Amino acid sequence: MSTNIEVWNVDDNSFWETTGKRAAYRNLWISVPALLCGFAVWLMWGIITVQMSNLGFPFSKDELFTLTAISGLAGATMRIPSSFFIRLAGGRNTVFLTTAMLLSPAIGTGIALQHPEWPLWVFQLMALWSGVGGGNFASSMSNISTFFPKRLQGTALGLNAGLGNFGVTTMQILIPLVMTVGVFGALGGDATVLVKDSGWIFGKIPAGTPTFIQNAGFAWVISLVPLAILCFWGMNNLLPISADARSTLLAFIKITWLYTLAFVPAIAGLYLYLPAPTGLGLLNMWVAMPLIIGSTLLIMKLAAFGTMKENIAKQFSIFKNKHTWSMTALYLVTFGSFIGFSMALPLSITVIFGEQHIFDAATQTWSHVKNPAAPSALTYAWIGPFVGALIRPVGGWVSDKVGGSIVTQIISAVMVLASAYAGYIMMQAYHSATPEIFFTQFLVVFVVLFAATGVGNGSTFRTVGVIFDRVQAGPVLGWTSAVAAYGSFIAPEVIKGQIKAGTPEMAMYGFAVFYALCLILNWWFYLRAGSEIKNP
After folding, report:
1. What is the DSSP string of 402-457?
2. Each residue of 229-260: pLDDT tens digit?
3. What Cα–Cα distance (Å) separates residue 119 from each residue in 67, 113, 269, 343, 384?
4. Cβ distance 486 to 289 under 8 Å?
């Protein structure tokens, strides 16, 4: 089959069985590992920062949390232009180039991690650059949605997103493993010695052990090179969806141009938000984030050229539909929580359970000292994202059978309760000289949260596929995933702020309130007796 497909009508059963099915599944199975690597490169800072602390890098806990927040915000911002790529540049062109782009932050991060003496801004730049991997999700989901008939949307998108989300778990398991050995020999640089205990899935790694932290970046090169080649030769552009995709070079120029534009508001917003010496610290998170989103959209609209301008204007029509906004909020509940907790959990475990929290009654102050019985974040942090990714296709499949909104309603109720209980456990642990006794409950409740987000990811995809037509469904999926990805910025920053204030439970209580409000929103729009679209 040609790289560019001229005719595409998968809602016709005859076309689907004779022509569409084979091409659709081929593109899906190539898309999945490419998306997996995108997630891995984007979210690797959640694990890297833990190991930077264990190796004695000269940065505070707040500064390390900042690295995860920067990569999270950059990835979310990159999703905004990425949600328009498929229509502008074609699926094959987009997935190939955005996968190849991941090589730069992977190699750059590997080089930077060999130099603990380098200033913080170098690591912040690498975290920002890693955001390209976050952007890939929007284009990948938008692309796969065009390949499958409506009756299979929930299952296909659940598979792409669910298996792609295994990039989080793969990264959380693989990075601690590859850091234990000199995988690349002399080419990979020298080891650094742990000053604190570390760990991997099989237990603790004691202080004094040589560690190749640079492999956290370098390891992805091994998979990215063959994957990029596979994307280039194995995937397709659907010309009925992407009429301007015939010119590969022009497609590459469009993608690079829009991604470059998106970095401008991300950098400006971070500079205004982050405290000195990195930034000015003028804006709080809730002002900086909408400012970045709005300015990114405005820049895209003003700086588009040629046929790009007309296509972007057409896709902006999604913002006139109220269901775009309701689904944005609901997807923030599901994927936003999944990605946010994935980013925040490793360092949260390290801070909350890695220290004994001792209250001095005489001075009425708390002291936090090293906890010798602390669980290793690198041993346990992968479990929740693994469960969430594993169950995601199930959420899509069940939603195809019973309807997406009823599934979303059930998991929202579960998340309200689980989030409130997680806050209670975090409060107990952060006010205990033996916080490790609360760790099992903490881990179990977060696994429940991750499972609920996984099921909900599948149900919200199903709902979008039913509500919107084929032309708008892709951009809506891209847009909602872009906004939801800001969860990767919100969760680390909110949890960091509340830990700093000594009240980590307030972060989880706040999330529980948000989930409850979205539960009402979902009922109002899609489940009540007078709703215009019933249980899509």
Report:
1. H-HHHHHHHHHHHHHHHHHHHHHHHHHHTT-S-GGGGHHHHHHHHHHHHHHHHHHH
2. 999 999 999 998 888 888 999 999 999 998 99
3. 13, 11, 21, 23, 33
4. yes
* pTM score of the predicted model: 0.85
Average pLDDT over the chain, rounded to an integer: 89
Give pLDDT, residue 308.
66
Does position 329 have pLDDT exceeding 80, yes or no?
Answer: yes
342: Cα within 13 Å, side-chain hemisphere: 37
Pair of tokens at residue 489: 């910025």
> Which 3-state string (H, E, C) describes 262-325?
HHHHHHHHHHHHCCCCCCCCCCCHHHHHHHHHHHHHHHHHHHCCCHHHHHHHHHHHHHHCHHHH
CA gap 458, 396 in Å, rounded = 4
If you average pLDDT over residues 406-433, what whole number do you get?
95
d(CA 124, CA 365): 33
CA dist., res. 391 & res. 190, Å (int): 40
* Sign for the pseudo-dihedral over CA of 418, 53, 40, 488: positive
Report the length, in residues, of the chain. 536
pLDDT digits (tens, 9 = 90+) for 312-321: 776 788 888 9
CA distance 536 to 252: 36
Q: What is the dihedral of CA 248, 225, 49, 271, to 10 degrees?
A: -20
10-46 per-position pLDDT tens digit: 888 899 999 889 999 999 999 999 999 999 999 899 8
Distance separating alpha carbons of residues 401 and 418, to the nearest angstrom: 26
* First-residue to last-residue Cα distance in the chain: 34
Q: Which of 334, 357, 340, 355 is nearest to 462 (CA)?
A: 334
Which run of H or E residues covers position 216? helix 215-218
Write the single-letter amino acid at 404.
G
User: Which amino acid would we find at residue 368?
Assistant: H
Residues 121 and 166: beta-carbon distance below 8 Å? no
Distances (CA, A) of 240 to 9, 136, 245, 277: 9, 22, 10, 50
